[in-house]
Amino acid sequence: MRRPLSIMRAADDWIEVLYKVVGEGLHLFTRKQPGDFVNLLGPIGQPFQFHRERPDALLIGGGVGIPPMVFIADEMRREAGSWRPLAILGSEIPFPFEPQASSLPVAGVDDAVCSTMPLLEAWGIPARLTSLQGYEGCHDGYVTDLADQWLQHLDDGERSGVEIFACGPTPMLRAVAELAARYDLPCQVSLEEFMACAVGGCAGCVVKIETPDGPQMKRVCVDGPVFDASTVVW
Questions:
Q1: 202-222 pLDDT per residue, tens
Q2: CA–CA separation, 7 vs 156, rounded Å?
Q3: How sure is the predictor about 80, in pLDDT bands with cuts at 50, 70 and 90?
Q4: Helix (H) or strand (E) segment spanning residue 9
Q5: CATH 3.40.50.80: does it fit domain 7-231?
Q6: What is the DSSP string of 169-199?
Q7: Cα separation, 189 vs 173, whole angstroms
Q8: Which residues contact 125 (CB under 8 A, 6 or more apart)?
């Protein structure tokens, strides 16, 4: 079966993915060498949607949910001056990059929380890292804790320009949805599900979504993976 992987960066003739080796499929994938062929299907499904009336994008990524947040940041930086993204990234295993101390301030966040992703720092996009593993410079807690701190320091007018984008494990996404609801903020989440066919035929990746016509089972591979967090039946 195919493995659903998020695209971290893309250009005209290449894509970059960041993945964690868990099972046999991705273990075999790591054995590929430059010049080898890989059969893929994609991109599939519905992407995140940007809304210019909310330029302050809060990007929350957990674990293998980090790559889509990097993708969003990359897209937004290409429109200089249009967006003001802030990324909060969490991991309970060592980060798949060497964290560095950031020189980009984040209002409302303790100065001791200074670790960032070097790629985002090079792009001029502020980011902060969180973990419960005691990594130096990281916030000791969940991504939602740090996001809450940042949102608290904003006044109502500033919060009116914020939209949340998130990807990660389901418990994290549920917590992000609850955070967004508490602040009455729009929030888009990219759900993680195993996909057998990836074309909507097998209905093996369905989730329950609230619609104007009542709850319906939607396929993550084609109806998602991005949904309005307020419509997901967690």
A1: 989 999 999 999 999 999 999
A2: 34
A3: confident
A4: strand 7-10
A5: yes
A6: -HHHHHHHHHHHHHHT--EEEE-----SSSS
A7: 7
A8: 73, 76, 77, 85, 86, 87, 104
- Phi (first) and psi of residue 17, to 5 degrees: -120, 150
Mean pLDDT of 135-148: 97
Q: Token digits for 65?
A: 């949910």
Is 80 exceeded by the pLDDT of residue 122? yes
Tens of pLDDT, residue by residue over 152-179, are 999 999 999 999 999 999 999 999 999 9
Q: Please give the structure tokens belonging to residue 105.
A: 């301030």
229 backbone dihedrals φ, ψ, rounded to 5°: -60, -30
Question: What type of residue is 34?
Answer: P
Instruction: Report CA-CA distances (Å) from 54 to 58, 122, 157.
Output: 10, 24, 11
For the chain, give the percent of residues with pLDDT over 70.
100
Cα dist from 184 to 125, 157, 162, 230, whole Å: 25, 13, 10, 10
